[in-house]
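Students often ask what a holo structure prediction actually looks like on paper. The answer is less mysterious than it sounds. You provide the chain, you provide the ligand, and the output is a string of discrete structure tokens encoding the 3D arrangement of the protein together with manganese (II) ion.
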Amino acid sequence: MERKSAWEKYDKKGLKKVFDFCEGYKEFITECKTERECVDRLVENAESCGYRDLQEIIEKGEKLKAGDKVYAVNMGKTLALFNIGKDSLEAGMNILGAHIDSPRLDLKQNPLYEDESLAMMETHYYGGVKKYQWVARPMALHGVVVKKDGTSVAVKLGESPDEPVIGVSDLLIHLSATQLQKKGDKVVEGEDLNLLVGSIPVKGEKKEPVKKAILKILKEKYGMDEADFQSAEFEVVPAEAARDYGLDSSMIIGYGQDDRICAYPSAEAMFAVSDPQRTCVCLLVDKEEIGSVGATGMHSRFFENTVAEIMNAMGCYSELSLRRAMSSSHVLSSDVSAAFDPNYPSVMEKNNCAYFGKGVAFNKYTGSRGKSGSNDANPEYIAKLRRILDDENIYYQTSELGKVDQGGGGTIAYILANYGMEVIDSGIAVQNMHAPYEVASKVDIYEARLAYEAFLRNMLK
Ligand code: MN
Ligand code: MN
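The corresponding structure tokens follow.
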């Protein structure tokens, strides 16, 4: 089937809109490199668009009605935005889902040590990574330290040009004869992903003088002691800003595009919708990269509980109404897909992979082997989506993640589908998925933004 280039669709004025939107996106992924930073920023944006904190409404015993906009934050790492529609909640919601966690190196709980007058930090990688990609590059330290008295300090170090960065060393080629004989997954091993963080000793100090000097800096900068690492959450991420990519600036290279590339246009689409027919939801979750587990992952009851609270504040809560609201809902479960890469054509099946510049990508199913672990979207639902997007001339493509039996992947789709919702995987194609720097096409990001808004406004039961 012919796939048209979404670039062809735009005149000069249209192209400016595509590029301008992507400036906002680049700024977002440059500034927001952890789930907490994404939540904080989007709450700020939501409030400026008239969204109110659901918790405050519950505490004040206020009522909610059609036209109200509220948000709920779960432990600082998951965000749900609701724009309450004219239809009853029992009629279901239009839900945009995406995740805001990304692969990275986390500091261990007892990270700091000294080895031959070098201060080092232990890490444990998060998500699926090719470990050899995470060495010999500038890295920034983002996170939060919570002290015993409950006060918490946000840390963001290495993003501004006048701040130092840290990093994991790689072995020089001159001495790599043994290393280069190893298999790819053993070239750099997980336990060797240690960060070099300092080399000046405290004068006259006998025991661990360099480590002590680093602790002094941490005390001065963040008021933290070594023991405070125990109640800290530090994420080590590629430093530096997202940039335009390609001589024509048609693409973006940056860290954490999986899956902030879907989260950002989802939130932006949400902010653009007013007085919807059906209740619109944007649900941005944590922990997708490690199986959607835990209190802030999609498997948690947070979303269901939040819908129950909203129904209660609307005076229409019952167990049955809640179940109906959930099972009548429609979802675009947005996550990145693999873009065709001319350097690696052997893993792609050309008729059914995603391409740069061909619009938002729908995966009817994901999974591995015989579609194992996949949500398999219903054709009745896909037909509705085709109609909505074609009506507004929004470009989309259908795809699978690579060749059959070549690998695979999962998303949050199947978890929402457990409620009986109509769910499809949709998202944006990227190259270098899970590498420190991922690449995506600007026009695909823009088509996704348009697709999300059209879905929120026009998907009806
Ligand atoms: Mn991923
Ligand atoms: Mn993802």
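Residues 114 and 208 are 6 Å apart (CA to CA).
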